[in-house]
Amino acid sequence: MELEQIYLDKGKDYTPRTQHLDKQGRAKFVNHLILESSPYLLQHAHNPVNWYPFSDEAFDKAKAENKPIFISIGYATCHWCHVMEEESFDDVEVAKFLNKHFISIKVDREIRPDVDATYMNVSQLINGSGGWPLNAVILPDGKAFFAGTYFPKPQLLDILSKIQTLWKNEKNSVINQANKIDNILNKAEAKTQSNIDKSIIPKAIQALLSNFDEMEGGFGEAPKFPHESMLLLLIDEQKRNPN
User: Fold this and answer.
1) What structural domains does the chain harbor?
2) N or C: more exposed end of the chain, with fewer CB within 10 A?
3) Which tens digit of pLDDT belongs to each residue from 78-104?
């Protein structure tokens, strides 16, 4: 069944979330997320970006068309996810570039925490931090070579343009970078299965405290996100060493 017909079959009680409406109040764009049940994915079903869910169809299309994949991960109550949608994903200029040069995938982290964890590890490796929206660019085999969080429209377009140029002119270098990142993460995962040297705990505590923002709260610079593991470590340290 055509995506447009699936949209129309949802009836009058269905309200599309987009600025792109015709005179009858109907959405001008419909993408593959209209087939999903996730409220977060349905929020993006009428973006001009031709979103796919995380699926074999999307990866097969990327392989067939020899395109990198732009993957964006978030959740329904994420503030900066909605900001980036309004600024970029519901923007025709951004959508045209993504639709021409990339296969775009949207992921609800509450439905696919495994996918979220995979690319969050990439962001933390590359940037030293992560958050949502979590945006990555990956090979058609799923290996990532770029990751970040929120980007305003001008910065996003600049990043996408540079990646597209690299993909066109230096594809082997891009693939090598993705393989290096994948190897590092695989080795790190293997190490986490062994016993941790307790001597690193004081060093980790000191690093966290030195990065704490005493004026505004949180760690590092904006945009900031709750880091449960960091906070739990500090709480545990306070209980063990009250002084």
Assistant:
1) 3-192 (3.40.30.10), 200-240 (no CATH)
2) C
3) 999 999 999 999 999 999 999 999 999
